[in-house]
Design a protein that fits this description.
single chain; about 140 residues; two-stranded antiparallel sheet; elongated
Length: about 140
């Protein structure tokens, strides 16, 4: 009986070693998920597990963030009044040139479909981006 248990243990150890070897050749695993809660952030991954904020690392693509852009435009050339016939100048026209800071509103919302990466044997998942962009 003892030798049978030893043999089964050896077989299981060999299976684990083979599985670990296969997995180690894949340093990153790709998953797909759906945001089920915005606050606190929770993502359902492939209908198998729900990840919370502590397990997630968010790429900038899926957060609200400030960015600086170079702009060169005029505030207005004219607007159509309610009769839709005659263009009239807006009350204040001026150019905007230089750099401006803008808030990019990209935070995840419930229902967003996302792509996640998990480093081999890691407990953290990187939320890379949405699938199909933000609508």
């Amino acid at each position: 009986m003892s030798s049978l248990a030893d043999a089964n243990g050896l077989v299981e150890a060999m299976k684990r070693a083979a599985r670990d070897e296969r997995e180690s050749s894949k340093p990153v695993n790709v998953y797909f998920g759906e945001v089920v809660s915005k606050s606190p952030l929770k993502i359902n991954v492939e209908q198998k597990m729900v990840l919370g904020e502590q397990q997630l690392v968010l790429a900038r693509n899926v957060t609200d963030y400030m960015t600086t852009v170079t702009v060169q435009w005029t505030t207005g050339e004219g607007v159509l009044p309610s009769d839709g016939e005659t263009a009239v100048p807006p009350p204040h026209v001026h150019g905007i040139v230089g750099t401006q800071n803008f808030m990019m509103h990209n935070a995840l919302e419930a229902g967003d479909q996302v792509i996640l990466l998990r480093q081999q044997e890691g407990q953290k998942f990187i939320v890379v981006d949405r699938i199909g962009g933000k609508g």
